[in-house]
What does this fold into?
Amino acid sequence: MSNVYHDYFYDKNGFDNLDGGYFPLKHPDVAEKPLAIPAVLKPDQVDGDDVYYTITAQEGSSQLFQGVPTKTWGYNTDLLGETVVLETGKTYHVTLKNELSEVTTFHWHGLNIVGPFDDGGPHAPVYPHGERKITFTVDQPSATIWLHPHPCPETARQVWNGLATPVVITDKYEQSLHLPSEYGVDDIPVVLQDRSYYDNQLDYKKSYDVDGTLGEFPLINGTLKPVFEVTKPVMRLRLLNGSNRREWRLHFSDNHPFTQIGSDGGLLPEAVELDHLMLTCAERADVLVDFSDYKPGDEITLQTDDFSFLKFKIGSFEASHINLPSPLAKLEELTPDSDETSFHTVMSGMDDEVRLDGKLFDMQRIDTKQQINTTKIWEVTNTNDMEGGMIHPFHVHGCQFQLISRNGKDVYPNEHGWKDTIGVNPNETVKIKIKFTKLGVFMYHCHILEHEDTGMMAQIEIFDPDHPMTYKLLSMDDMMHEKL
Ligand SMILES: [Cu+2]
It folds into this structure.
Protein backbone atom coordinates (compact mmCIF):
# COMPACT_ATOMS: atom_id res chain seq x y z
CA MET A 1 0.00 0.00 0.00
CA SER A 2 1.18 3.46 -0.82
CA ASN A 3 1.11 6.38 1.57
CA VAL A 4 -1.65 6.07 4.18
CA TYR A 5 -2.85 9.36 5.68
CA HIS A 6 -3.54 9.29 9.41
CA ASP A 7 -4.99 12.74 9.63
CA TYR A 8 -8.36 14.49 9.72
CA PHE A 9 -6.61 17.33 7.86
CA TYR A 10 -8.94 20.01 9.29
CA ASP A 11 -7.85 22.57 11.86
CA LYS A 12 -8.39 20.97 15.30
CA ASN A 13 -9.21 24.34 16.85
CA GLY A 14 -12.29 24.49 14.68
CA PHE A 15 -13.66 21.01 15.53
CA ASP A 16 -17.25 20.96 16.78
CA ASN A 17 -16.22 19.11 19.95
CA LEU A 18 -14.73 22.39 21.21
CA ASP A 19 -18.03 24.29 20.81
CA GLY A 20 -19.85 25.46 23.94
CA GLY A 21 -23.00 23.53 23.11
CA TYR A 22 -21.23 20.34 22.03
CA PHE A 23 -22.04 16.96 23.50
CA PRO A 24 -20.68 13.59 22.40
CA LEU A 25 -22.91 10.78 21.16
CA LYS A 26 -24.35 8.24 23.62
CA HIS A 27 -25.32 4.60 23.16
CA PRO A 28 -29.09 4.18 23.02
CA ASP A 29 -30.59 1.54 25.29
CA VAL A 30 -31.88 -0.63 22.47
CA ALA A 31 -30.87 -3.93 20.90
CA GLU A 32 -28.62 -4.08 17.85
CA LYS A 33 -30.45 -4.13 14.55
CA PRO A 34 -29.32 -4.82 11.01
CA LEU A 35 -28.32 -1.58 9.33
CA ALA A 36 -31.32 -0.40 7.31
CA ILE A 37 -30.57 -0.21 3.61
CA PRO A 38 -32.91 2.20 1.86
CA ALA A 39 -34.91 0.53 -0.91
CA VAL A 40 -34.17 1.63 -4.44
CA LEU A 41 -36.86 3.92 -5.87
CA LYS A 42 -38.73 2.12 -8.66
CA PRO A 43 -39.51 4.08 -11.82
CA ASP A 44 -43.20 4.60 -12.68
CA GLN A 45 -42.27 4.10 -16.31
CA VAL A 46 -39.19 3.68 -18.50
CA ASP A 47 -39.39 4.76 -22.11
CA GLY A 48 -35.97 4.34 -23.73
CA ASP A 49 -33.73 6.93 -22.12
CA ASP A 50 -36.67 8.63 -20.44
CA VAL A 51 -37.33 7.55 -16.87
CA TYR A 52 -40.32 8.61 -14.76
CA TYR A 53 -40.19 8.80 -10.97
CA THR A 54 -42.56 9.95 -8.26
CA ILE A 55 -41.15 11.16 -4.96
CA THR A 56 -43.58 11.86 -2.13
CA ALA A 57 -42.68 13.63 1.10
CA GLN A 58 -44.83 11.92 3.73
CA GLU A 59 -45.39 11.35 7.43
CA GLY A 60 -44.76 7.94 8.92
CA SER A 61 -43.64 6.14 12.03
CA SER A 62 -40.58 4.11 12.94
CA GLN A 63 -40.10 1.53 15.70
CA LEU A 64 -36.83 2.97 17.02
CA PHE A 65 -37.38 2.20 20.71
CA GLN A 66 -39.53 -0.23 22.65
CA GLY A 67 -43.07 1.00 23.10
CA VAL A 68 -44.52 3.91 21.22
CA PRO A 69 -43.20 4.27 17.67
CA THR A 70 -41.45 7.50 16.72
CA LYS A 71 -43.23 9.81 14.32
CA THR A 72 -40.85 10.33 11.41
CA TRP A 73 -40.89 11.76 7.90
CA GLY A 74 -39.54 10.27 4.69
CA TYR A 75 -39.62 10.23 0.92
CA ASN A 76 -41.95 7.40 -0.17
CA THR A 77 -41.30 5.70 3.16
CA ASP A 78 -41.44 6.29 6.91
CA LEU A 79 -37.93 7.62 7.49
CA LEU A 80 -35.28 9.07 5.16
CA GLY A 81 -36.24 7.81 1.73
CA GLU A 82 -35.67 5.48 -1.17
CA THR A 83 -32.35 5.68 -2.99
CA VAL A 84 -32.80 7.47 -6.30
CA VAL A 85 -30.65 5.96 -9.06
CA LEU A 86 -29.79 8.21 -12.01
CA GLU A 87 -27.76 7.29 -15.07
CA THR A 88 -25.62 9.79 -16.92
CA GLY A 89 -27.17 10.63 -20.29
CA LYS A 90 -30.72 9.73 -19.32
CA THR A 91 -33.63 12.11 -18.90
CA TYR A 92 -35.69 12.04 -15.72
CA HIS A 93 -39.26 13.20 -15.36
CA VAL A 94 -39.89 13.51 -11.66
CA THR A 95 -43.20 14.22 -9.97
CA LEU A 96 -42.58 15.71 -6.53
CA LYS A 97 -45.54 15.30 -4.19
CA ASN A 98 -46.13 16.74 -0.77
CA GLU A 99 -48.32 14.73 1.60
CA LEU A 100 -47.09 16.64 4.67
CA SER A 101 -49.29 19.22 6.34
CA GLU A 102 -46.83 22.04 5.60
CA VAL A 103 -44.88 23.46 2.66
CA THR A 104 -41.66 21.74 1.62
CA THR A 105 -39.20 21.77 -1.29
CA PHE A 106 -37.13 19.03 -2.94
CA HIS A 107 -33.51 20.11 -3.32
CA TRP A 108 -31.11 18.04 -5.47
CA HIS A 109 -27.88 18.60 -3.57
CA GLY A 110 -24.95 18.11 -5.96
CA LEU A 111 -26.93 17.89 -9.20
CA ASN A 112 -26.17 20.09 -12.20
CA ILE A 113 -29.72 21.24 -12.75
CA VAL A 114 -31.36 24.55 -13.69
CA GLY A 115 -32.40 26.90 -10.89
CA PRO A 116 -34.16 28.12 -8.99
CA PHE A 117 -37.23 25.92 -9.49
CA ASP A 118 -35.92 22.50 -10.62
CA ASP A 119 -32.99 22.79 -8.21
CA GLY A 120 -35.56 22.79 -5.43
CA GLY A 121 -34.35 25.63 -3.23
CA PRO A 122 -36.77 27.94 -1.39
CA HIS A 123 -38.18 29.30 -4.68
CA ALA A 124 -39.75 25.93 -5.47
CA PRO A 125 -42.38 25.37 -2.78
CA VAL A 126 -44.67 22.36 -2.98
CA TYR A 127 -47.71 22.96 -0.79
CA PRO A 128 -49.64 20.28 1.13
CA HIS A 129 -51.35 17.85 -1.25
CA GLY A 130 -49.71 19.67 -4.14
CA GLU A 131 -47.10 18.55 -6.61
CA ARG A 132 -44.43 19.89 -8.95
CA LYS A 133 -43.09 18.20 -12.07
CA ILE A 134 -39.50 18.63 -13.15
CA THR A 135 -37.47 17.23 -16.05
CA PHE A 136 -33.70 17.07 -16.28
CA THR A 137 -31.02 15.22 -18.21
CA VAL A 138 -28.06 13.99 -16.18
CA ASP A 139 -24.81 15.28 -17.73
CA GLN A 140 -22.34 14.74 -14.91
CA PRO A 141 -20.22 11.73 -13.92
CA SER A 142 -21.06 8.99 -11.43
CA ALA A 143 -21.37 10.29 -7.85
CA THR A 144 -23.29 10.04 -4.59
CA ILE A 145 -25.42 13.12 -4.18
CA TRP A 146 -28.62 13.56 -2.16
CA LEU A 147 -32.11 14.93 -1.95
CA HIS A 148 -33.32 16.98 1.01
CA PRO A 149 -35.87 19.71 1.78
CA HIS A 150 -34.82 23.37 1.54
CA PRO A 151 -37.75 25.61 2.59
CA CYS A 152 -35.58 27.92 4.69
CA PRO A 153 -36.23 28.83 7.50
CA GLU A 154 -37.78 25.36 8.05
CA THR A 155 -35.07 23.22 6.41
CA ALA A 156 -33.35 22.09 9.60
CA ARG A 157 -36.57 20.90 11.27
CA GLN A 158 -37.74 19.01 8.19
CA VAL A 159 -34.40 17.22 7.85
CA TRP A 160 -34.46 16.53 11.60
CA ASN A 161 -37.89 14.93 11.18
CA GLY A 162 -36.40 12.52 8.64
CA LEU A 163 -36.43 13.94 5.12
CA ALA A 164 -33.19 13.11 3.27
CA THR A 165 -32.27 10.39 0.82
CA PRO A 166 -29.22 9.30 -1.15
CA VAL A 167 -29.13 9.81 -4.91
CA VAL A 168 -26.68 7.60 -6.80
CA ILE A 169 -25.48 8.64 -10.26
CA THR A 170 -23.88 5.90 -12.35
CA ASP A 171 -22.12 6.07 -15.69
CA LYS A 172 -20.44 3.73 -18.18
CA TYR A 173 -16.89 4.59 -17.12
CA GLU A 174 -17.56 3.76 -13.49
CA GLN A 175 -19.28 0.52 -14.49
CA SER A 176 -16.14 -0.46 -16.48
CA LEU A 177 -14.08 -0.34 -13.25
CA HIS A 178 -15.94 -3.30 -11.70
CA LEU A 179 -16.14 -1.67 -8.31
CA PRO A 180 -18.30 -3.42 -5.70
CA SER A 181 -21.76 -2.72 -7.05
CA GLU A 182 -24.23 -5.12 -5.48
CA TYR A 183 -26.50 -2.62 -3.78
CA GLY A 184 -27.15 -3.49 -0.14
CA VAL A 185 -24.48 -6.22 -0.19
CA ASP A 186 -21.13 -4.66 -1.05
CA ASP A 187 -22.29 -1.20 -2.13
CA ILE A 188 -24.21 0.63 0.57
CA PRO A 189 -25.14 4.20 1.43
CA VAL A 190 -24.24 5.20 4.99
CA VAL A 191 -26.24 8.24 6.06
CA LEU A 192 -24.70 9.71 9.20
CA GLN A 193 -27.15 11.50 11.48
CA ASP A 194 -27.78 12.13 15.17
CA ARG A 195 -31.05 12.68 16.99
CA SER A 196 -32.50 13.14 20.48
CA TYR A 197 -35.87 11.83 21.60
CA TYR A 198 -38.39 12.80 24.26
CA ASP A 199 -40.77 9.96 25.21
CA ASN A 200 -39.65 8.27 22.00
CA GLN A 201 -40.49 11.33 19.91
CA LEU A 202 -38.40 13.83 18.01
CA ASP A 203 -38.92 17.37 19.25
CA TYR A 204 -36.95 19.80 17.14
CA LYS A 205 -37.80 22.81 19.31
CA LYS A 206 -36.55 21.08 22.45
CA SER A 207 -33.37 19.89 20.73
CA TYR A 208 -32.75 23.19 18.92
CA ASP A 209 -29.41 24.97 19.09
CA VAL A 210 -29.02 28.18 17.08
CA ASP A 211 -25.41 27.21 16.36
CA GLY A 212 -26.42 23.83 14.95
CA THR A 213 -28.59 21.16 16.51
CA LEU A 214 -26.91 18.01 17.81
CA GLY A 215 -28.57 14.76 18.75
CA GLU A 216 -27.72 12.44 21.66
CA PHE A 217 -27.82 9.21 19.68
CA PRO A 218 -26.43 8.20 16.33
CA LEU A 219 -28.98 7.37 13.65
CA ILE A 220 -27.35 5.57 10.73
CA ASN A 221 -29.59 5.04 7.69
CA GLY A 222 -32.37 5.48 10.23
CA THR A 223 -31.05 2.67 12.47
CA LEU A 224 -30.25 3.40 16.12
CA LYS A 225 -27.75 0.62 16.90
CA PRO A 226 -26.77 -0.80 13.53
CA VAL A 227 -24.81 -3.88 12.65
CA PHE A 228 -23.87 -4.88 9.12
CA GLU A 229 -23.01 -8.44 8.08
CA VAL A 230 -20.04 -8.40 5.71
CA THR A 231 -20.33 -11.12 3.03
CA LYS A 232 -17.91 -9.77 0.42
CA PRO A 233 -14.22 -9.03 0.88
CA VAL A 234 -14.44 -5.45 -0.34
CA MET A 235 -17.25 -3.06 0.55
CA ARG A 236 -18.08 0.26 -1.03
CA LEU A 237 -19.44 2.68 1.56
CA ARG A 238 -21.10 5.82 0.27
CA LEU A 239 -20.70 7.97 3.36
CA LEU A 240 -22.97 10.99 3.62
CA ASN A 241 -22.97 13.45 6.49
CA GLY A 242 -26.71 14.13 6.69
CA SER A 243 -26.49 15.73 10.12
CA ASN A 244 -27.77 19.21 10.92
CA ARG A 245 -24.54 20.17 12.63
CA ARG A 246 -22.42 17.23 13.78
CA GLU A 247 -19.03 16.61 12.19
CA TRP A 248 -18.09 12.96 11.78
CA ARG A 249 -14.46 12.10 12.41
CA LEU A 250 -14.41 8.58 11.09
CA HIS A 251 -12.01 5.74 11.70
CA PHE A 252 -12.29 2.03 12.41
CA SER A 253 -11.87 0.70 15.94
CA ASP A 254 -8.51 -0.86 14.91
CA ASN A 255 -7.59 2.03 12.59
CA HIS A 256 -7.97 -0.31 9.61
CA PRO A 257 -7.10 1.67 6.48
CA PHE A 258 -9.56 2.30 3.67
CA THR A 259 -9.45 3.81 0.21
CA GLN A 260 -11.33 6.95 -0.73
CA ILE A 261 -12.35 6.71 -4.37
CA GLY A 262 -14.87 9.53 -4.58
CA SER A 263 -15.80 12.92 -3.16
CA ASP A 264 -19.03 14.94 -3.45
CA GLY A 265 -19.16 15.08 -7.23
CA GLY A 266 -17.65 11.79 -8.30
CA LEU A 267 -14.54 9.66 -8.57
CA LEU A 268 -11.23 11.18 -7.49
CA PRO A 269 -8.48 11.47 -10.10
CA GLU A 270 -6.39 9.20 -7.83
CA ALA A 271 -7.60 6.98 -5.00
CA VAL A 272 -6.38 8.05 -1.55
CA GLU A 273 -5.45 5.66 1.28
CA LEU A 274 -6.57 6.85 4.69
CA ASP A 275 -7.34 5.56 8.13
CA HIS A 276 -9.07 8.74 9.33
CA LEU A 277 -11.63 10.82 7.49
CA MET A 278 -13.62 13.85 8.58
CA LEU A 279 -16.88 14.86 6.94
CA THR A 280 -18.46 18.24 7.62
CA CYS A 281 -22.21 18.64 7.12
CA ALA A 282 -23.48 17.58 3.67
CA GLU A 283 -20.11 16.26 2.46
CA ARG A 284 -19.86 12.79 0.96
CA ALA A 285 -17.01 10.32 0.64
CA ASP A 286 -17.09 7.16 -1.39
CA VAL A 287 -14.71 4.63 0.21
CA LEU A 288 -13.65 1.03 -0.36
CA VAL A 289 -12.96 -1.07 2.71
CA ASP A 290 -11.01 -4.29 2.22
CA PHE A 291 -12.05 -6.81 4.89
CA SER A 292 -9.99 -9.69 3.38
CA ASP A 293 -7.63 -9.94 6.33
CA TYR A 294 -10.36 -10.58 8.90
CA LYS A 295 -11.69 -13.99 9.95
CA PRO A 296 -15.34 -15.00 10.04
CA GLY A 297 -16.78 -13.88 13.39
CA ASP A 298 -14.48 -10.87 13.71
CA GLU A 299 -16.12 -7.56 14.48
CA ILE A 300 -14.83 -4.11 13.74
CA THR A 301 -16.69 -0.92 14.30
CA LEU A 302 -16.75 2.43 12.61
CA GLN A 303 -16.22 5.21 15.12
CA THR A 304 -16.49 8.96 15.26
CA ASP A 305 -13.86 10.31 17.64
CA ASP A 306 -13.79 7.42 20.13
CA PHE A 307 -17.48 6.53 19.85
CA SER A 308 -18.46 3.28 18.09
CA PHE A 309 -21.64 3.60 16.04
CA LEU A 310 -21.63 1.00 13.25
CA LYS A 311 -20.55 -2.61 13.75
CA PHE A 312 -19.30 -4.72 10.85
CA LYS A 313 -19.58 -8.48 11.52
CA ILE A 314 -17.33 -10.47 9.28
CA GLY A 315 -18.98 -13.41 7.56
CA SER A 316 -17.28 -15.87 5.26
CA PHE A 317 -16.08 -14.96 1.82
CA GLU A 318 -13.22 -15.75 -0.49
CA ALA A 319 -10.50 -13.16 -0.21
CA SER A 320 -10.03 -11.03 -3.28
CA HIS A 321 -8.81 -7.54 -3.93
CA ILE A 322 -9.81 -4.71 -6.16
CA ASN A 323 -7.23 -3.32 -8.55
CA LEU A 324 -7.86 0.34 -9.17
CA PRO A 325 -6.42 2.00 -12.26
CA SER A 326 -4.20 5.05 -12.03
CA PRO A 327 -5.49 7.57 -12.76
CA LEU A 328 -8.75 6.37 -11.27
CA ALA A 329 -10.78 8.84 -13.29
CA LYS A 330 -10.05 11.47 -15.89
CA LEU A 331 -11.46 14.68 -14.52
CA GLU A 332 -12.38 17.56 -16.78
CA GLU A 333 -9.88 20.04 -15.35
CA LEU A 334 -11.51 23.47 -15.06
CA THR A 335 -9.42 26.29 -16.56
CA PRO A 336 -10.31 29.74 -15.22
CA ASP A 337 -10.57 32.41 -17.91
CA SER A 338 -8.57 34.76 -15.68
CA ASP A 339 -6.10 34.29 -12.81
CA GLU A 340 -7.88 37.08 -10.95
CA THR A 341 -10.38 36.23 -8.25
CA SER A 342 -13.78 37.24 -9.58
CA PHE A 343 -15.78 36.79 -6.40
CA HIS A 344 -14.96 36.79 -2.72
CA THR A 345 -17.51 35.63 -0.17
CA VAL A 346 -17.12 35.80 3.59
CA MET A 347 -18.69 33.60 6.24
CA SER A 348 -18.65 35.10 9.70
CA GLY A 349 -20.02 34.76 13.19
CA MET A 350 -21.57 32.15 15.40
CA ASP A 351 -24.96 31.68 17.01
CA ASP A 352 -27.54 34.19 15.72
CA GLU A 353 -24.76 36.48 14.49
CA VAL A 354 -23.87 34.28 11.53
CA ARG A 355 -23.69 36.24 8.28
CA LEU A 356 -22.67 35.74 4.68
CA ASP A 357 -20.89 38.88 3.39
CA GLY A 358 -22.20 40.71 6.44
CA LYS A 359 -25.80 40.12 5.42
CA LEU A 360 -28.73 37.83 6.07
CA PHE A 361 -30.49 35.95 3.28
CA ASP A 362 -33.08 37.79 1.20
CA MET A 363 -34.95 35.63 -1.30
CA GLN A 364 -35.61 38.62 -3.55
CA ARG A 365 -32.02 39.87 -3.69
CA ILE A 366 -29.52 38.63 -6.27
CA ASP A 367 -26.15 38.91 -4.54
CA THR A 368 -23.84 38.17 -7.47
CA LYS A 369 -23.92 37.02 -11.09
CA GLN A 370 -21.79 34.80 -13.27
CA GLN A 371 -22.01 34.02 -16.96
CA ILE A 372 -22.96 30.46 -17.86
CA ASN A 373 -20.12 28.16 -19.02
CA THR A 374 -17.37 30.50 -17.84
CA THR A 375 -14.88 29.31 -15.22
CA LYS A 376 -14.16 31.80 -12.46
CA ILE A 377 -12.03 31.86 -9.34
CA TRP A 378 -13.84 32.40 -6.07
CA GLU A 379 -12.37 32.94 -2.64
CA VAL A 380 -14.39 31.64 0.29
CA THR A 381 -13.30 33.03 3.63
CA ASN A 382 -14.27 32.07 7.17
CA THR A 383 -13.35 35.03 9.37
CA ASN A 384 -14.81 33.38 12.39
CA ASP A 385 -12.54 33.83 15.38
CA MET A 386 -15.09 34.03 18.20
CA GLU A 387 -13.88 31.61 20.92
CA GLY A 388 -11.53 29.92 18.48
CA GLY A 389 -14.13 29.85 15.76
CA MET A 390 -15.79 27.00 13.97
CA ILE A 391 -15.67 25.26 10.63
CA HIS A 392 -18.45 26.38 8.28
CA PRO A 393 -19.30 23.93 5.48
CA PHE A 394 -19.77 26.07 2.34
CA HIS A 395 -22.14 24.71 -0.32
CA VAL A 396 -23.07 25.95 -3.80
CA HIS A 397 -26.19 24.74 -5.62
CA GLY A 398 -26.41 23.69 -9.25
CA CYS A 399 -22.78 22.83 -9.92
CA GLN A 400 -19.63 21.00 -8.88
CA PHE A 401 -16.39 22.93 -8.40
CA GLN A 402 -12.67 22.22 -7.94
CA LEU A 403 -10.35 23.43 -5.20
CA ILE A 404 -7.19 25.44 -5.86
CA SER A 405 -5.77 26.14 -2.41
CA ARG A 406 -6.39 26.52 1.32
CA ASN A 407 -4.79 29.72 2.66
CA GLY A 408 -2.46 29.58 -0.35
CA LYS A 409 -1.35 26.05 0.50
CA ASP A 410 -2.17 22.66 -1.02
CA VAL A 411 -5.69 21.37 -0.55
CA TYR A 412 -6.22 18.15 1.39
CA PRO A 413 -5.14 14.96 -0.48
CA ASN A 414 -8.76 13.83 -0.89
CA GLU A 415 -9.93 17.17 -2.31
CA HIS A 416 -8.64 16.87 -5.87
CA GLY A 417 -12.01 15.81 -7.27
CA TRP A 418 -15.37 17.48 -7.78
CA LYS A 419 -16.83 19.14 -4.69
CA ASP A 420 -20.05 20.95 -3.89
CA THR A 421 -19.46 21.40 -0.16
CA ILE A 422 -16.20 22.31 1.60
CA GLY A 423 -15.42 22.78 5.25
CA VAL A 424 -13.68 26.12 5.67
CA ASN A 425 -11.55 26.40 8.80
CA PRO A 426 -11.62 29.50 11.03
CA ASN A 427 -9.38 32.21 9.56
CA GLU A 428 -9.02 30.40 6.30
CA THR A 429 -9.62 31.32 2.67
CA VAL A 430 -10.31 28.51 0.23
CA LYS A 431 -9.79 29.30 -3.45
CA ILE A 432 -11.99 27.38 -5.87
CA LYS A 433 -12.55 27.16 -9.64
CA ILE A 434 -16.23 27.20 -10.46
CA LYS A 435 -18.26 26.84 -13.65
CA PHE A 436 -22.03 26.67 -13.94
CA THR A 437 -23.45 24.87 -16.96
CA LYS A 438 -27.09 25.55 -16.11
CA LEU A 439 -29.02 28.81 -16.05
CA GLY A 440 -30.86 30.05 -13.02
CA VAL A 441 -30.75 31.56 -9.58
CA PHE A 442 -28.87 29.38 -7.10
CA MET A 443 -28.18 29.48 -3.39
CA TYR A 444 -24.74 29.40 -1.81
CA HIS A 445 -24.61 29.00 1.92
CA CYS A 446 -23.32 27.42 5.10
CA HIS A 447 -24.61 23.85 5.38
CA ILE A 448 -24.94 23.83 9.14
CA LEU A 449 -28.69 23.72 8.74
CA GLU A 450 -29.45 26.13 11.57
CA HIS A 451 -26.98 28.67 10.13
CA GLU A 452 -28.64 28.30 6.75
CA ASP A 453 -32.09 28.79 8.30
CA THR A 454 -30.87 31.83 10.27
CA GLY A 455 -29.85 33.40 6.95
CA MET A 456 -26.19 32.53 6.30
CA MET A 457 -27.09 32.23 2.63
CA ALA A 458 -27.10 34.27 -0.58
CA GLN A 459 -28.01 33.91 -4.26
CA ILE A 460 -26.15 33.93 -7.54
CA GLU A 461 -27.75 34.37 -10.93
CA ILE A 462 -26.21 32.41 -13.79
CA PHE A 463 -26.98 34.29 -16.99
CA ASP A 464 -26.51 33.91 -20.72
CA PRO A 465 -26.01 37.34 -22.37
CA ASP A 466 -27.65 36.00 -25.55
CA HIS A 467 -30.73 34.75 -23.70
CA PRO A 468 -31.60 37.13 -20.87
CA MET A 469 -34.03 35.70 -18.35
CA THR A 470 -36.17 37.28 -15.70
CA TYR A 471 -37.12 35.39 -12.57
CA LYS A 472 -40.06 36.12 -10.35
CA LEU A 473 -38.40 35.60 -7.02
CA LEU A 474 -40.74 34.74 -4.16
CA SER A 475 -40.39 36.40 -0.80
CA MET A 476 -40.09 34.18 2.24
CA ASP A 477 -43.66 35.03 3.12
CA ASP A 478 -44.84 34.03 -0.40
CA MET A 479 -42.97 30.75 -0.09
CA MET A 480 -44.43 29.89 3.29
CA HIS A 481 -48.03 30.76 2.42
CA GLU A 482 -49.82 29.38 -0.57
CA LYS A 483 -51.72 32.00 -2.56
CA LEU A 484 -55.07 30.47 -3.36
CU1 LIG B 1 -22.05 27.98 9.47
